[in-house]
């Protein structure tokens, strides 16, 4: 059987990356959306301390975990003065969309292509998951079925750590100065706004936070959140005639009047944006609906926000006594306009991917990364694949061979920023 590894280098990196990944996912780092703490959950500090200790043990310089939970470290260039400073980034938190406590990773060695029925309920059927169907023969990692796995983005964390350990063990392999950064609260869009770009000191960076092998993303959604609060008039239902104004019904009317056959996540793909009501709470007196709005085009995104606002205001205006408040907030921008002036940053990554024998997949992310915000703040940061799939769900999985390929790309990326293509096979 043909080896599922992309190169001998990837095969060499695989078991170290796997061991690190399985260790990291066991730390509970779910981000907490409404928390005022920074980071939003204590597990992120725990994982950060673990990573800082491992970086010190590898001999890296300037290792620190700051008060906000960010972990930074430096691997100096071995090619003398004048080399660039390049950042490698991954986030430590996991999504609150699925349970994240008590993750138990399971490695399915030499996956046979059949249905994976996990011990605690989740079923991964290759017939419904083309990416999984294409990983026959790979070592596939899942959770036990009642939590997410945490490949988003602890796969990226493990890949960076594995690549850095390899570079330390191979001091003659050419590299620029590498700045390592592990970030917090990416999943709730808060961490990158607190990231100290100046102190990080890189001229460019890469997040390892993508999915399919070969992905190289220099464009993301732009994102707005919208909160709609309906205020009604409450009274005992037995004497409500002519007086009651039910805020919960007004919220239901809003959801009913917004498009259902378009502009929703389940009816859009590729470059189509959406309006997504993801939370509703309240009662007859006050009811709140929270939306996320996404598009690649800023004008279209503004139009989605206006659609939510005008629909809500028209519903409230039609009911005497009703009142509505609509608040919108920018979450992150499309990174493309910030990366476009720096095509060499993306091209270096493309050469590293091709050097690993992988086809480059130039895609636009239907989501955001830390790089969306960091690029807008002056640190150009495209996104590279990390190998995971079915993010934010109990069906999340990752291939060991794909993680190893990502780590190998990091090693090759280091050489590309110094001397160009280098044979490490």
Describe the structure.
- With 425 residues, the protein is α+β, with helices and mostly antiparallel strands.
- It has two domains: 8-220 and 334-416, Aminopeptidase (3-Layer(aba) Sandwich), CATH 3.40.630; 223-330, Alpha-Beta Plaits.
- The chain is 32% helix and 23% strand.
- The protein has twelve helices and 18 strands.
- The chain has helices spanning 8-25, 42-57, 130-133, 151-169, 191-194, 197-200, 247-257, 298-317, 336-339, 343-355, 370-376, 400-416, and strands at residues 61-65, 71-75, 85-91, 106-108, 116-117, 123-124, 140-142, 177-183, 204-210, 215-220, 222-231, 274-282, 286-295, 323-332, 361-365, 383-385, 388-389, 397-399.
- A hairpin with a 5-residue loop joins strand 1 and strand 2.
- The longest helix is centred in the C-terminal third of the chain and has 20 residues, at 298-317.
- The radius of gyration is 23 Å and the shape is globular.
- Mean pLDDT is 96; it is low at 420-425.
The class by helix and strand makeup works out as alpha+beta
Give a short account of the largest sheet.
Answer: 8 strands, mixed
* Rg over alpha carbons: 23 Å
**Which percent range fits the helix content?**
25-40%
Give me the CATH architecture of the largest domain, please. Answer: 3-Layer(aba) Sandwich
Would you report the number of β strands?
Answer: 18
**CATH level 1 name of the largest domain:** Alpha Beta
What's the helix count? 12
The fraction of residues assigned to DSSP E strands is 15-25%
Determine the CATH topology of the largest domain.
Aminopeptidase
Shape category: globular
Name the CATH superfamily assignment of the largest domain. Answer: Zn peptidases
Strand order of the largest sheet: 1-2-8-3-9-16-10-15
Q: Mean pLDDT across all residues, rounded? A: 96
* Unreliable residue runs: 420-425
N-C termini distance: 20 Å
SSE topology string: HHEEEEEEHEHEHHEEEHEEHEHHEHEEEH
Number of domains: 2
